[in-house]
Amino acid sequence: MSADSQRKKFTVPQLSLVKGASRRLSMVTAYDATFAFIVDSGGVDLILVGDSVATVMQGQRNTLGVSMEHMEYHVQMVASAKPLALIVGDLPFGSYQTSVSDAVHNSVRLIKAGAEIVKLEGGVHIAEQITAITNADIPVMGHIGLTPQSYHRMGGNKIQGRTEGDGAGSKERLMDDALAVQEAGACAVVIEGVPSDLARTITDTLTIPTIGIGAGAHCDGQVLVMHDLLGLSPRTFTFAKPYVQLREQAQQAVAQYVSEVQSGAWPDAEHSFS
Ligand code: KIV
After folding, report:
1. Contact at 8 Å (CB) between 230 and 242?
2. Is the C-beta atom of 225 inside 6 A of ligand 1?
3. Residue among 263, 235, 230, 252 nearest 38 (CA)
4. If DSSP states are collapsed to H, E and C, what string results for 56-122?
């Protein structure tokens, strides 16, 4: 059941309508059809098939090992749920940094798999790729600030925008990145892991919507990784709120099943055939 039975398919042109509006955008990650259905029926505007699949599904330390084949597979699974939410496909590390033609080629692959907009990380240095992808008529979402694919450069997943100067991750550079992403043609941008004041200044400066994660309350929208929202993650993070504790509930359910199997209480007559 949808949270709103009048809800219609969310489309790319609608992104621009929320800029500066009081009604914020909501985005949640999903990686398969079952959970795409669950988050979609909760009423989200966008489903992000994120390369966070590496950490929350594959058990990796960072997102760097995700391949195009992995992303195509997960985008296909989410698309098969036919969500009303817009499907955002994440371009994995190495699929667009290498060249402009790789960026266009791999964006086409994600669209063919079922994505409706592609997301990539970076600002000034990736602007050429964003322009080329949008020129191929593929909508692009940028991602600046704490960009997990810059894991080694940042020395881990570290909050950005706290330093002065023009080096990568500095306050000034993040504003330049935001403007470069917009100028290159992106229709929205994720701001991750930056102080709220800076995210607010960027949001007030840009004409495209900003979607924050660990970036405070002033962005035009918010995104959370589904495992953090549903309490499926083994860890909790300052920037994330578990709205339910599914990990604990699932563990309890399995423990009860094991105990009933061991005692012979399962299966009972109601669940058996005569
Ligand atoms: O891959 C992902 O889940 C993301 C979000 C954290 C924005 O990029």
Report:
1. yes
2. yes
3. 230
4. HCCCCCCCCCCCHHHHHHHHHHHHCCCCCCEEEEECCCCCCCCCHHHHHHHHHHHHHHCCCEEECCE
What is the residue with the minimal CA distance to atom 6 of ligand 1? 225
End-to-end CA distance of the chain: 34
Q: pLDDT tens for residues 26-78?
A: 999 999 999 999 999 999 999 999 999 999 999 999 999 999 999 999 999 99
Query: Would you say how long the chain is, in residues?
Result: 274
Give the pair of three-digit tokens for residue 253: 């359910």
Say whether pTM exceeds 0.90: yes
Nearest CA owner, ligand 1 atom 8: 50
Residue 192 falls in the annotated catalytic set = yes
Catalytic-role residue among 72, 116, 121, 192: 192
* d(C-alpha 52, C-alpha 47), whole Å: 13
Contact between 184 and 162 under an 8 Å Cβ cutoff? The reply is: no
Specify the DSSP class assigned to residue 168.
T
